[in-house]
Each structure stands twice: as C-alpha cells, then as structure tokens.
C-alpha cells in the first residue's frame, strides 16, 4: 500500500525544512467544525493533528513557494473574494482556502459540507476572477507538489467551453 497524502506532504515539508512545530488539537478542530457548520473528513483532521501547515502558514511561501495554512488561518474563500465562477459551485459558501502560492498570488481551497463527503474536491483561485475545479481530492495536489509541478498546480480542469 502506498503512502497517504499526509505522509507524502510530510516528506515534502521535511525536504524543504518547512515543518510546523505547532499542531492543532482535537478541541480546536471540533470548534472549527461547530463555528463553520462543516464536518472535516478524518484525513484532514489527521493533517491538522500531525502537520497543521507550514511554519508561517498564510503568506509563508515556505514550501516550493507555497504556504500551507494553519487551522486557525483557514477562512471561507467567499470571505476574501467572490469570483463569479465560485457562485456556480456546489456548497459555494463552504470552500476553505488551505494554501497560497508566492505570498498570496493564488490560493487552493477545499470543500467541506455539513456532513462528511466521500472526497473533498480542491479548486484553485488565481485572483484574476477565475476559479476552477482542480481535482476530486487532495491526493493529486500533493502528488504534483511532490514532483515540483507548480505550473500544473496553478491550472485547473475546464470543460469544453472553459467552464468550471
């Protein structure tokens, strides 16, 4: 059996000397879920308990020019900007930014619903009023990060007409 995405990300963070010594607690995770009316999947809970982002988190650019946010820094994507593309996505208010590129030149967000879903899709927000579905889950994101494929990390899957 292969490594989990958390183990793969931990290896990348070690390689980049970007490990965060401050981990989240189960109580902080439960509070975030209550405050935001979402259910954080078990793998993401493990992420917060074992990694919880890079040392600076938001705007840190510590891991291949990417800052992975701490649980306390997660915020709804619609609170920072509301690209028109976001309005057509399911659970549009439940997309939470989890990482930024080159000190906030772009962001990646994950969708958490009120009930745990089979997977948590990831999208990329390029701040030029375009938001696009990146992947069905975090695994592809971490795999590309491990390969250092930043250009692919900043792209997204578009339909035939360029729609999300």
Give the biggest sheet. Answer: 5 strands, antiparallel
Order of strands in the sheet with most strands:
1-2-3-4-5
Going by helix content, strand content and strand pairing, the class is alpha+beta
Helix amount: 25-40%
Average of per-residue pLDDT values: 77
Q: Overall 3D geometry?
A: globular
**What is the N-to-C order of secondary-structure elements (H for helix, E for strand)?**
HHHEHEEEEHH
Give a brief description.
With 164 residues, the protein is of the alpha+beta class.
Describe this structure in words.
It is a single chain. The protein is an alpha+beta fold. It has helices at about 5-15, 25-35, 40-50, 75-80, 140-145, 150-155, and strands spanning about 65-70, 95-100, 105-110, 120-125, 130-135. Strands 1-2-3-4-5 form a five-stranded antiparallel sheet. Strand 4 (about 120-125) and strand 5 (about 130-135) form a beta hairpin. The longest helix has 11 residues, at about 5-15. It is globular and about 35 Å long. Mean pLDDT is about 75; it is low at about 155-164.
Keywords:
5-stranded antiparallel sheet, alpha+beta, disordered C terminus, 164 residues, 5 strands
Question: Layout of SSEs?
Answer:
Elements lengths: L4 H11 L10 H11 L5 H9 L15 E3 L8 H4 L14 E7 L4 E6 L10 E4 L5 E5 L2 H10 L2 H4 L11
Antiparallel strand pairs: 1-2, 2-3, 3-4, 4-5
Helix pairs in contact: 1-5
């Amino acid at each position: 059996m292969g490594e989990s995405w958390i183990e793969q990300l931990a290896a990348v963070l070690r390689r980049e000397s970007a490990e965060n010594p401050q981990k989240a607690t189960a109580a902080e995770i439960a509070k975030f879920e209550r405050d935001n009316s979402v259910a954080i999947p078990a793998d993401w809970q493990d992420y917060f308990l074992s990694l919880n982002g890079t040392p600076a988190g938001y705007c840190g650019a510590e891991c291949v020019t990417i800052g992975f946010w701490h649980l306390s820094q997660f915020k709804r994507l619609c609170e920072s900007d509301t690209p028109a593309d976001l309005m057509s996505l399911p659970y549009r208010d439940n997309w939470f930014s989890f990482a930024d590129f080159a000190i906030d030149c772009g962001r990646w967000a994950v969708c958490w619903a009120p009930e745990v879903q089979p997977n948590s899709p990831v999208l990329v927000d390029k701040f030029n009023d375009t938001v696009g579905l990146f992947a069905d889950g975090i695994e592809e994101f971490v795999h590309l990060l491990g390969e250092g494929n930043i250009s692919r990390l900043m792209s997204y899957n578009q339909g035939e007409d360029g729609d999300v």
